[in-house]
Automatic annotation (TrEMBL):
<feature type="domain" description="D-glutamate N-acetyltransferase-like N-terminal">
    <location>
        <begin position="51"/>
        <end position="143"/>
    </location>
</feature>
<feature type="domain" description="D-glutamate N-acetyltransferase-like C-terminal">
    <location>
        <begin position="149"/>
        <end position="342"/>
    </location>
</feature>
<dbReference type="InterPro" id="IPR027417">
    <property type="entry name" value="P-loop_NTPase"/>
</dbReference>
<dbReference type="Pfam" id="PF17396">
    <property type="entry name" value="DUF1611_N"/>
</dbReference>
<dbReference type="InterPro" id="IPR035402">
    <property type="entry name" value="DgcN-like_N"/>
</dbReference>
<protein>
    <submittedName>
        <fullName>DUF1611 domain-containing protein</fullName>
    </submittedName>
</protein>
<dbReference type="InterPro" id="IPR011669">
    <property type="entry name" value="DgcN-like"/>
</dbReference>
<dbReference type="Pfam" id="PF07755">
    <property type="entry name" value="DUF1611"/>
</dbReference>
<dbReference type="InterPro" id="IPR035086">
    <property type="entry name" value="DgcN-like_C"/>
</dbReference>
Length: 353
Protein backbone atom coordinates (compact mmCIF):
# COMPACT_ATOMS: atom_id res chain seq x y z
CA UNK A 1 0.00 0.00 0.00
CA UNK A 2 1.17 3.51 -0.81
CA UNK A 3 1.92 6.24 1.71
CA UNK A 4 1.23 9.95 1.29
CA UNK A 5 4.04 12.12 -0.02
CA UNK A 6 4.58 13.81 3.35
CA UNK A 7 6.86 13.32 6.29
CA UNK A 8 5.55 12.99 9.83
CA UNK A 9 5.24 16.29 11.62
CA UNK A 10 7.65 16.95 14.48
CA UNK A 11 6.63 15.64 17.87
CA UNK A 12 6.11 19.17 19.18
CA UNK A 13 3.21 19.79 16.81
CA UNK A 14 0.56 22.15 18.20
CA UNK A 15 -1.88 20.51 20.57
CA UNK A 16 -5.24 22.13 19.90
CA UNK A 17 -8.25 19.93 20.45
CA UNK A 18 -11.42 20.45 18.43
CA UNK A 19 -14.03 21.15 21.12
CA UNK A 20 -17.23 19.18 20.84
CA UNK A 21 -15.87 16.51 18.52
CA UNK A 22 -15.94 12.98 19.97
CA UNK A 23 -12.32 11.84 20.33
CA UNK A 24 -10.21 9.81 19.83
CA UNK A 25 -10.85 8.98 16.18
CA UNK A 26 -10.78 5.93 13.95
CA UNK A 27 -9.62 7.36 10.60
CA UNK A 28 -11.69 6.10 7.66
CA UNK A 29 -9.93 5.89 4.28
CA UNK A 30 -12.82 4.48 2.27
CA UNK A 31 -11.69 2.97 -1.04
CA UNK A 32 -9.16 5.74 -1.74
CA UNK A 33 -6.37 4.88 -4.18
CA UNK A 34 -4.61 8.27 -4.38
CA UNK A 35 -2.77 9.57 -1.34
CA UNK A 36 -3.54 13.21 -2.17
CA UNK A 37 -7.22 12.56 -1.52
CA UNK A 38 -6.49 11.18 1.98
CA UNK A 39 -4.95 14.43 3.18
CA UNK A 40 -7.45 14.75 6.03
CA UNK A 41 -6.33 11.42 7.49
CA UNK A 42 -2.65 12.28 7.08
CA UNK A 43 -3.14 15.72 8.59
CA UNK A 44 -4.77 14.27 11.72
CA UNK A 45 -2.11 11.56 11.96
CA UNK A 46 0.72 14.08 11.71
CA UNK A 47 -0.62 17.00 13.76
CA UNK A 48 -2.95 15.28 16.26
CA UNK A 49 -1.58 11.73 16.64
CA UNK A 50 -2.72 11.50 20.24
CA UNK A 51 -6.31 11.66 18.98
CA UNK A 52 -6.02 8.85 16.40
CA UNK A 53 -6.56 5.23 17.50
CA UNK A 54 -6.10 3.60 14.10
CA UNK A 55 -7.35 3.42 10.52
CA UNK A 56 -10.18 1.61 8.76
CA UNK A 57 -10.32 1.09 5.00
CA UNK A 58 -12.23 -0.90 2.41
CA UNK A 59 -10.39 -3.68 0.59
CA UNK A 60 -10.14 -1.54 -2.57
CA UNK A 61 -8.08 1.15 -0.81
CA UNK A 62 -4.45 1.49 -1.82
CA UNK A 63 -3.52 4.13 0.78
CA UNK A 64 -2.49 3.82 4.42
CA UNK A 65 -1.58 6.26 7.16
CA UNK A 66 0.65 3.65 8.76
CA UNK A 67 -1.60 3.47 11.81
CA UNK A 68 -2.94 0.13 13.03
CA UNK A 69 -5.66 -1.21 10.73
CA UNK A 70 -8.79 -1.85 12.82
CA UNK A 71 -12.44 -2.72 12.42
CA UNK A 72 -14.94 -0.35 14.07
CA UNK A 73 -15.54 -2.91 16.84
CA UNK A 74 -11.81 -3.21 17.54
CA UNK A 75 -11.40 0.56 17.52
CA UNK A 76 -14.29 1.03 19.95
CA UNK A 77 -12.68 -1.49 22.29
CA UNK A 78 -9.43 0.49 21.99
CA UNK A 79 -11.18 3.66 23.11
CA UNK A 80 -12.26 5.31 19.86
CA UNK A 81 -15.38 7.41 20.12
CA UNK A 82 -15.92 8.30 16.48
CA UNK A 83 -15.20 7.30 12.91
CA UNK A 84 -13.66 10.31 11.17
CA UNK A 85 -13.85 10.36 7.37
CA UNK A 86 -10.24 11.04 6.43
CA UNK A 87 -10.84 11.58 2.72
CA UNK A 88 -11.22 14.80 0.72
CA UNK A 89 -12.16 13.60 -2.76
CA UNK A 90 -13.24 15.77 -5.73
CA UNK A 91 -16.63 17.26 -4.97
CA UNK A 92 -16.62 16.01 -1.37
CA UNK A 93 -19.00 13.15 -2.11
CA UNK A 94 -19.73 10.08 0.01
CA UNK A 95 -20.17 7.15 -2.40
CA UNK A 96 -22.68 4.35 -1.98
CA UNK A 97 -19.77 1.92 -1.59
CA UNK A 98 -18.99 3.47 1.83
CA UNK A 99 -22.51 3.13 3.24
CA UNK A 100 -22.10 -0.35 4.76
CA UNK A 101 -18.87 0.68 6.51
CA UNK A 102 -20.51 3.77 7.98
CA UNK A 103 -23.43 1.70 9.24
CA UNK A 104 -20.96 -0.77 10.78
CA UNK A 105 -19.31 2.11 12.64
CA UNK A 106 -22.64 3.22 14.10
CA UNK A 107 -23.50 -0.34 15.11
CA UNK A 108 -20.10 -0.62 16.82
CA UNK A 109 -20.92 2.39 19.00
CA UNK A 110 -19.04 5.12 17.12
CA UNK A 111 -20.28 8.56 16.13
CA UNK A 112 -19.35 9.72 12.61
CA UNK A 113 -17.44 12.94 11.89
CA UNK A 114 -17.27 14.20 8.31
CA UNK A 115 -15.68 17.14 6.53
CA UNK A 116 -17.20 16.27 3.16
CA UNK A 117 -19.46 18.57 1.16
CA UNK A 118 -22.16 15.90 1.14
CA UNK A 119 -24.05 15.83 4.42
CA UNK A 120 -24.16 12.62 6.42
CA UNK A 121 -27.92 13.01 6.78
CA UNK A 122 -28.23 12.78 2.97
CA UNK A 123 -27.08 9.15 3.01
CA UNK A 124 -30.18 6.94 2.83
CA UNK A 125 -30.92 5.26 6.14
CA UNK A 126 -27.91 6.61 8.01
CA UNK A 127 -29.76 9.18 10.10
CA UNK A 128 -32.43 6.62 11.03
CA UNK A 129 -29.84 4.13 12.29
CA UNK A 130 -27.92 6.86 14.15
CA UNK A 131 -31.11 7.98 15.90
CA UNK A 132 -32.04 4.42 16.81
CA UNK A 133 -28.60 3.79 18.33
CA UNK A 134 -28.21 7.20 19.96
CA UNK A 135 -25.20 8.07 17.82
CA UNK A 136 -24.25 11.47 16.38
CA UNK A 137 -23.66 12.45 12.75
CA UNK A 138 -21.36 15.50 12.76
CA UNK A 139 -20.66 17.57 9.63
CA UNK A 140 -17.66 19.88 10.10
CA UNK A 141 -17.83 21.52 6.66
CA UNK A 142 -20.59 23.98 7.58
CA UNK A 143 -19.76 27.71 7.28
CA UNK A 144 -21.13 30.21 9.79
CA UNK A 145 -24.40 31.94 9.04
CA UNK A 146 -24.63 35.56 7.88
CA UNK A 147 -21.14 35.89 6.36
CA UNK A 148 -20.82 39.49 5.13
CA UNK A 149 -19.83 40.57 1.65
CA UNK A 150 -16.21 41.70 1.74
CA UNK A 151 -15.64 45.41 2.32
CA UNK A 152 -12.00 45.51 1.24
CA UNK A 153 -11.23 47.64 4.31
CA UNK A 154 -7.62 47.31 5.41
CA UNK A 155 -7.48 45.68 8.83
CA UNK A 156 -4.92 46.13 11.58
CA UNK A 157 -2.43 43.39 12.40
CA UNK A 158 -0.26 41.31 10.10
CA UNK A 159 -1.20 38.32 7.94
CA UNK A 160 0.60 35.50 6.18
CA UNK A 161 -1.14 33.31 3.58
CA UNK A 162 0.16 30.06 2.11
CA UNK A 163 -0.51 29.69 -1.63
CA UNK A 164 0.41 26.86 -3.97
CA UNK A 165 1.26 25.67 -7.46
CA UNK A 166 -1.42 22.98 -6.98
CA UNK A 167 -3.75 21.38 -4.45
CA UNK A 168 -2.71 18.91 -1.74
CA UNK A 169 1.00 19.70 -1.54
CA UNK A 170 1.54 21.27 1.86
CA UNK A 171 -0.25 24.59 2.37
CA UNK A 172 -1.80 23.46 5.65
CA UNK A 173 1.43 21.85 6.91
CA UNK A 174 3.39 24.96 6.00
CA UNK A 175 0.96 27.28 7.79
CA UNK A 176 1.00 25.11 10.91
CA UNK A 177 4.79 24.90 10.92
CA UNK A 178 5.20 28.65 10.43
CA UNK A 179 2.66 29.40 13.16
CA UNK A 180 4.53 27.11 15.56
CA UNK A 181 7.85 28.73 14.60
CA UNK A 182 6.42 32.22 15.14
CA UNK A 183 5.15 31.20 18.58
CA UNK A 184 8.54 29.68 19.46
CA UNK A 185 10.11 33.05 18.70
CA UNK A 186 7.69 34.82 21.01
CA UNK A 187 5.62 36.28 18.18
CA UNK A 188 1.95 36.77 19.03
CA UNK A 189 0.18 34.68 16.38
CA UNK A 190 -2.80 32.49 15.49
CA UNK A 191 -3.29 29.69 13.00
CA UNK A 192 -6.41 30.36 10.92
CA UNK A 193 -7.90 27.17 9.47
CA UNK A 194 -9.77 27.28 6.16
CA UNK A 195 -10.35 23.57 5.49
CA UNK A 196 -11.93 20.68 7.30
CA UNK A 197 -8.65 19.11 8.45
CA UNK A 198 -7.26 22.38 9.74
CA UNK A 199 -10.50 23.00 11.60
CA UNK A 200 -10.31 19.54 13.19
CA UNK A 201 -6.75 20.31 14.30
CA UNK A 202 -7.22 23.94 15.37
CA UNK A 203 -10.67 23.62 16.87
CA UNK A 204 -12.09 26.47 14.80
CA UNK A 205 -12.03 28.19 11.43
CA UNK A 206 -14.15 28.56 8.29
CA UNK A 207 -14.44 25.85 5.59
CA UNK A 208 -13.80 28.19 2.66
CA UNK A 209 -14.79 25.75 -0.06
CA UNK A 210 -18.26 25.48 1.49
CA UNK A 211 -18.86 29.24 1.27
CA UNK A 212 -20.96 30.72 -1.56
CA UNK A 213 -18.61 32.43 -4.02
CA UNK A 214 -19.92 35.98 -3.44
CA UNK A 215 -19.01 35.67 0.23
CA UNK A 216 -15.55 34.03 -0.05
CA UNK A 217 -13.60 37.25 0.51
CA UNK A 218 -16.00 38.26 3.27
CA UNK A 219 -15.42 34.95 5.02
CA UNK A 220 -11.67 35.54 4.83
CA UNK A 221 -12.13 38.97 6.39
CA UNK A 222 -14.24 37.39 9.13
CA UNK A 223 -11.57 34.73 9.70
CA UNK A 224 -8.77 37.24 10.31
CA UNK A 225 -10.25 40.31 12.01
CA UNK A 226 -8.52 43.45 13.24
CA UNK A 227 -5.67 42.64 15.60
CA UNK A 228 -2.81 44.28 17.47
CA UNK A 229 -0.19 45.83 15.16
CA UNK A 230 2.40 43.14 15.96
CA UNK A 231 -0.02 40.17 15.84
CA UNK A 232 0.27 37.66 12.99
CA UNK A 233 -2.55 35.56 11.58
CA UNK A 234 -1.06 32.59 9.72
CA UNK A 235 -3.75 31.61 7.25
CA UNK A 236 -4.09 28.17 5.67
CA UNK A 237 -4.33 28.47 1.88
CA UNK A 238 -6.67 26.58 -0.43
CA UNK A 239 -6.46 25.42 -4.03
CA UNK A 240 -4.29 27.26 -6.55
CA UNK A 241 -4.89 30.43 -8.54
CA UNK A 242 -4.39 28.53 -11.81
CA UNK A 243 -6.24 25.33 -10.94
CA UNK A 244 -9.10 24.86 -13.44
CA UNK A 245 -11.41 23.54 -10.69
CA UNK A 246 -10.49 25.44 -7.52
CA UNK A 247 -9.12 28.85 -8.50
CA UNK A 248 -12.24 30.65 -7.24
CA UNK A 249 -11.68 29.78 -3.58
CA UNK A 250 -7.99 30.71 -3.90
CA UNK A 251 -8.76 34.18 -5.24
CA UNK A 252 -11.48 34.93 -2.70
CA UNK A 253 -9.17 33.87 0.11
CA UNK A 254 -6.33 36.00 -1.28
CA UNK A 255 -8.45 39.14 -1.60
CA UNK A 256 -10.13 38.74 1.79
CA UNK A 257 -6.98 37.76 3.67
CA UNK A 258 -5.09 40.85 2.48
CA UNK A 259 -1.79 39.09 3.27
CA UNK A 260 1.28 41.13 4.02
CA UNK A 261 3.36 38.06 3.22
CA UNK A 262 2.69 34.93 1.20
CA UNK A 263 4.65 31.70 0.97
CA UNK A 264 4.45 29.60 -2.20
CA UNK A 265 4.10 25.86 -1.61
CA UNK A 266 5.35 23.41 -4.23
CA UNK A 267 6.12 19.72 -4.70
CA UNK A 268 9.23 19.14 -6.85
CA UNK A 269 8.67 16.47 -9.47
CA UNK A 270 4.92 16.99 -9.80
CA UNK A 271 4.12 17.80 -13.42
CA UNK A 272 0.31 17.74 -13.63
CA UNK A 273 -2.36 19.35 -11.47
CA UNK A 274 -4.13 16.84 -9.27
CA UNK A 275 -7.63 15.79 -10.33
CA UNK A 276 -7.46 17.36 -13.80
CA UNK A 277 -7.27 16.07 -17.36
CA UNK A 278 -3.54 16.56 -17.83
CA UNK A 279 -3.29 20.26 -17.01
CA UNK A 280 0.40 21.06 -16.62
CA UNK A 281 1.55 22.36 -13.26
CA UNK A 282 2.03 26.12 -13.15
CA UNK A 283 5.56 27.37 -12.58
CA UNK A 284 6.57 28.82 -9.23
CA UNK A 285 7.41 32.14 -10.92
CA UNK A 286 3.94 32.43 -12.46
CA UNK A 287 2.27 31.81 -9.10
CA UNK A 288 4.42 34.53 -7.51
CA UNK A 289 3.55 36.95 -10.31
CA UNK A 290 -0.20 36.20 -10.16
CA UNK A 291 -0.30 36.41 -6.37
CA UNK A 292 1.48 39.76 -6.40
CA UNK A 293 -0.80 41.20 -9.10
CA UNK A 294 -4.09 39.93 -7.69
CA UNK A 295 -3.16 40.30 -4.01
CA UNK A 296 -2.04 43.91 -4.42
CA UNK A 297 -5.66 44.82 -5.15
CA UNK A 298 -6.45 44.65 -1.41
CA UNK A 299 -2.93 45.02 -0.02
CA UNK A 300 -0.51 47.00 -2.20
CA UNK A 301 2.32 46.11 0.21
CA UNK A 302 2.05 42.34 -0.36
CA UNK A 303 5.34 40.50 -0.73
CA UNK A 304 6.64 36.95 -1.14
CA UNK A 305 8.43 35.65 1.94
CA UNK A 306 9.84 32.53 0.30
CA UNK A 307 9.02 29.02 -0.77
CA UNK A 308 7.94 25.82 0.94
CA UNK A 309 8.91 22.59 -0.82
CA UNK A 310 7.41 19.19 -0.06
CA UNK A 311 10.56 17.06 -0.47
CA UNK A 312 9.28 13.84 1.11
CA UNK A 313 10.10 11.89 -2.05
CA UNK A 314 13.77 12.97 -1.89
CA UNK A 315 16.70 11.89 0.24
CA UNK A 316 18.18 14.36 2.72
CA UNK A 317 21.09 15.11 0.39
CA UNK A 318 18.85 15.50 -2.65
CA UNK A 319 16.46 17.80 -0.80
CA UNK A 320 19.23 19.98 0.64
CA UNK A 321 20.91 20.37 -2.74
CA UNK A 322 17.67 21.13 -4.58
CA UNK A 323 16.48 23.70 -2.06
CA UNK A 324 19.85 25.46 -2.03
CA UNK A 325 19.90 25.69 -5.83
CA UNK A 326 16.30 26.89 -6.02
CA UNK A 327 16.88 29.46 -3.29
CA UNK A 328 19.79 30.91 -5.25
CA UNK A 329 17.76 30.92 -8.47
CA UNK A 330 14.63 32.46 -6.95
CA UNK A 331 16.40 34.90 -4.65
CA UNK A 332 14.44 33.95 -1.50
CA UNK A 333 14.63 31.16 1.12
CA UNK A 334 13.43 27.71 0.07
CA UNK A 335 12.75 25.19 2.83
CA UNK A 336 10.83 22.07 3.73
CA UNK A 337 9.07 22.99 7.01
CA UNK A 338 8.86 19.35 8.04
CA UNK A 339 12.62 18.86 7.65
CA UNK A 340 13.28 22.16 9.44
CA UNK A 341 16.91 23.18 9.89
CA UNK A 342 18.73 26.37 8.82
CA UNK A 343 16.76 26.65 5.57
CA UNK A 344 13.47 26.77 7.46
CA UNK A 345 14.93 29.25 9.97
CA UNK A 346 15.82 31.47 7.03
CA UNK A 347 12.26 31.20 5.67
CA UNK A 348 10.80 32.19 9.04
CA UNK A 349 13.15 35.15 9.31
CA UNK A 350 12.26 36.29 5.80
CA UNK A 351 8.55 36.15 6.58
CA UNK A 352 8.96 38.18 9.76
CA UNK A 353 11.38 40.72 8.25
Amino acid sequence: MGNASVLAAPSDAPERAAPGLPQPYLLFLGDTRESGYAKTAFGLRDWAPERCVGEYALTEADVTTGLTRMTPIEARSAGARSLLIGVANPGGTIPESWRAALLDALEAGLDIVSGMHMRLTDIPGLAHVAERLGRRLIDVRVPPADIPVASGRKRSGKRLLTVGTDCALGKKYTALALWRAFAARGVDSDFRATGQTGIMIAGGGIPMDAVVSDFEAGAAELLSPDAAPDHWDVIEGQGALTHPSFAAVSLGLLHGSQPDVFVVCHEPGRTEMIGTASYALTSIEEIVDLTMKLGSRTNPAIRCGGFSFNTAALSDAEATDLMARESERLGLPVADPIRGGPAFDALVASCLA
